[in-house]
Design goal:
This protein is an alpha+beta fold. It folds into two domains: 73 residues, Methylated DNA-protein cysteine methyltransferase domain (Double Stranded RNA Binding Domain, 2-Layer Sandwich), CATH 3.30.160; 88 residues, Winged helix-like DNA-binding domain superfamily/Winged helix DNA-binding domain (Arc Repressor Mutant, subunit A), CATH 1.10.10. Keywords: DNA damage, DNA repair, Methyltransferase, Transferase. InterPro entries: MethylDNA_cys_MeTrfase_AS, MethylDNA_cys_MeTrfase_DNA-bd, MethylDNA_cys_MeTrfase_DNAb, WH-like_DNA-bd_sf.
Length: 171
């Protein structure tokens, strides 16, 4: 069974989906079914049920919101993708909170040539586990916030939250 929990956040509800204790999807929506439909059919075959508390993943979100910016890093997760996409997703998880990089740099960090910036953008666009896989930390080289599946106001809130807390922890 895929278990779902919806958590309140300052930028709107965050839905977490978990299978056997591993997060398989997360996103800023109040509708678990919306996230469920983005899962591969092999996971959809398990069905979906709402639960009161997913345990560690839910606590990690609360801790992150309370200022522990590395809390999401300890959560087990999995999502589908080619070996190249998996390298990009791993590199995404290694971008520290409070910092941003461009798509070309993400590709470089994944050990891919600079020309793979387009693949980096596609990996971000198809990311099923926001903010655990922090695609919000990737910005276009032309400036601005770029796109974000859950809207640029959510991306902006996440970046502002992280930057403010990262700066205070350095002081």
């Amino acid at each position: 069974m895929i278990e779902a929990q919806v958590l309140p956040t300052p930028t709107g509800p965050l839905t977490l989906l978990s299978h056997e204790g591993v997060v398989v999807a997360a996103g800023f929506t109040a509708d678990p079914h919306q996230m469920f439909l983005r899962l591969p059919s092999r996971l959809q075959a398990y069905g979906l049920r709402r639960v009161e508390d997913l345990g560690h993943p839910a606590q990690a979100v609360r801790d992150y919101l309370d200022g522990e910016l590395t809390a999401l890093d300890s959560v087990a997760l999995t999502q589908p993708g080619t070996p190249t996409r998996q390298r990009l997703l791993t590199a995404l998880r290694e971008v520290p909170a409070g910092t941003t990089i461009g798509y070309a740099e993400l590709a470089e960090r994944a050990g891919l040539p600079r020309t793979a910036a387009r693949a980096a953008g596609a990996a971000c666009a198809q990311n099923l586990i926001a903010p655990f896989v922090p695609c919000h930390r990737i910005l276009p080289s032309a400036g601005g916030f770029g796109g974000y599946y859950y809207g640029t106001p959510v991306k902006q809130w996440l970046l502002t939250h992280e930057k403010a807390l990262a700066q205070t922890s350095v002081l």
